[in-house]
Amino acid sequence: MTGARRFSQAISEGDGISLVALVGDLESARDAEEQGAEALVVSLPIQGLGEVTALPVLWRPPGAPESAEQAGADACVVSMGFDEEDGDLERLHREALALGLDCVVEVSSEEELERALERIDPEILLLSSEGEGDGGPLGGALELLPDVPAGKLAVAELNAAGRHEVDELERAGVDAVIVDARNLTGLAGEPPPEV
């Protein structure tokens, strides 16, 4: 594991919404931490990541949780969209927890959310933009949010989010938002004063 804090701890602590930066190399990871990200998302192994940042890392590619552990991640995504065989979801969830990883379950529809809650009752849910509703990725996340039970952590994914979208997600009660590291400027902290 890279950081001293777990992924779940990083996105649940403090006031406001947590920014989780999608990074692809050491420089973007370092920059994301400096710009106020509270966790990182990677979709491929980044050699030396734990040496340049103490932020927790979420492993995003589909596959076995062992890949996340080998990449030095603190958490992994298990997608309901890849739950093709009966028992896959439960098995992957158990494997992640047995490895000491936080397991983030990705859902893109009300049906997937309901199945995930019935079958494994995950602590962290990724409200994916793949199931975009009429309002695009923001609308899709906001449509799913009311069905997330109290006490669960909700993460939205808006790679091109601006301050307005982040504020709207925060007001709605989303715990964290995944954004591209290049879009972090101006999202962390208080919005600049109007002149």
Structure, described:
The protein is α/β, with parallel strands linked by helices. The protein has a single domain (7-183), classed as TIM Barrel (Alpha-Beta Barrel), CATH 3.20.20. The protein has 8 helices and 8 strands. The protein has helices at 7-12, 26-34, 49-52, 65-70, 88-98, 110-119, 136-144, 163-172; strands spanning 18-22, 39-42, 57-59, 75-79, 102-107, 124-127, 153-157, 176-180. The chain has an 8-stranded parallel β-barrel, surrounded by 5 helices. The longest helix has 11 residues, at 88-98. The model is unreliable at 191-195 (pLDDT under 50).
Outline of this structure?
With 195 residues, the chain is of the alpha/beta class. Helix content is 33%, strand content 19%. It has helices at 7-12, 26-34, 49-52, 65-70, 88-98, 110-119, 136-144, 163-172, and strands at residues 18-22, 39-42, 57-59, 75-79, 102-107, 124-127, 153-157, 176-180.
Features:
single chain; 195 residues; alpha/beta; TIM Barrel; eight-stranded parallel beta barrel; 8 helices; 8 strands; 33% helix; 19% strand; globular; disordered C terminus
